[in-house]
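Section 3.1 - Work completed
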Amino acid sequence: MRRYGSAAVISAFGDGFSYLAVPLIAAGQLGAGPRELGWLTALAWLPQAVFSLPAGSWVARRGRPIATLVVADLARAALMILVAIAAVTGSLTLTILYLATFCSATAAVFFSVSDAAVLPALAKNDRFARSLAIMQANRTVGGAVGTTLGGLVIRYASAPLAVLIDAVSFVVSATALRGVHLPSATAKTSTSSLRLSEGLRCLWRTRPLRTALAVTTTSNFFHLGFHALIVLYATQILGLSAGTLGLVISTDTIGVLAASALAPALLERFGNRVGLAAGNIIFACPLLLVAAATGPVMVAAGILSSGFGGCLQNISVGSTFAVSVPPHLRSAVRGAYQSISFGVRPLGALAAGLAGTWVGLRPAVWATVIGGILAVLWMVIPAPAATVRAGGETSDASAS
């Protein structure tokens, strides 16, 4: 468990560098505007829509999630090295950046659906929510530190160096993951006869997951639009430097740490459904401060508060997933879930990029924030909790 957690933190640390570096390279070195950044963000999430379902089924049939995690990390490292070299030599183009982003995101899909089978196998059933909260906190801290240092590296050195640091983090993560050993029963489990549609069928049969899917799909559409614009909005409209922006974005760590500490007790007391609703509201509403911001203080306040809600929402969904899905279907169901919930993200990014071009960056940011707030309306529809019967069958039950 320690090696797995270390790999997650290291990878998130490197991602923080690229989170700022890639769009800043596109905007500063390649002259990208809102539309081009919308396309870049869309390509970063398009593989979720295209490959999540078949990748989840493939990983479930293959039954070797750790090996898939390692290969995915190494593939992303190679792609980030390519981008860094091309940027330094002056041969980087938007086309190359688009392709590298798409391929890296495809590797991330295989990583994500494999990861869905690993944490539940390593964590004890009665401590899964706490383990998920700790993992969420560790990843967020790693990402926040990476974003903060990434902003400083970009300001005082160069954006390509920040991308190269991300590549190194993937290599270190892959090395750590090679030492992770799953329980023998989990490591040897494969379902060679699993049908491609089985993940979708399980997802559709489980009402709590259907509700979570509706909420997160709506939220993801608008929130990715927000993230497609935030770097350009903060630097061009608010006049923030890369260093300041890195510090401001990293303030969500405070909110995530608070939510990670409180979420297990909150979910035990109120249940996953209330946690999902509360998390979504707190995730979306504080971003109104970002849309109305005139400087870094309001942006930091909004992102900090939103970080609390986002973490609570993610832990609620993860806990619902863990108790509702049979172990042998976790990768397949995660793939089905992501193909829809993450699959809308490219559309949100493209819509936001077009809106930023047509009506301006600030009105477009307002639209993404208001749209994200509407996601909680899906919670009006009652959804009883699922139970897992012997043999891995799911059924609807009364909500707790």
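Second construct:
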Amino acid sequence: MPLDFNGRITPGPREIGFDYCHIIPATVDRVPTVWIENDRVVGLAPADPIAVSYQRDFGTEPNGIDRPDLLKQPADKKHSGTIINGISRIGFMQGGKIGALQARGAADDSRQQVGRVS
């Protein structure tokens, strides 16, 4: 069963003893491109729910094969899914635009969180 990113996400780091977590749910080249704080997607708007698939394109967002003109770097066969911030990812995602991780800001976001909880 696919993971539902629109509610509480478990199990996670808190279930194995961590007091706090601020993570991405996959590698930065995969969807969904969101931050998860504790057990919820940061900034998720109920009116813009997230759907993720590694098998099929939803057909609602541009992908790296059909829209190479939107890319900052060329897509390869593996990295040709949904385009987020000019980079096509592994897999397909729709929704979650407010909570979307912006690739160039990921390091800054991460540094801010480390400073906040240190």
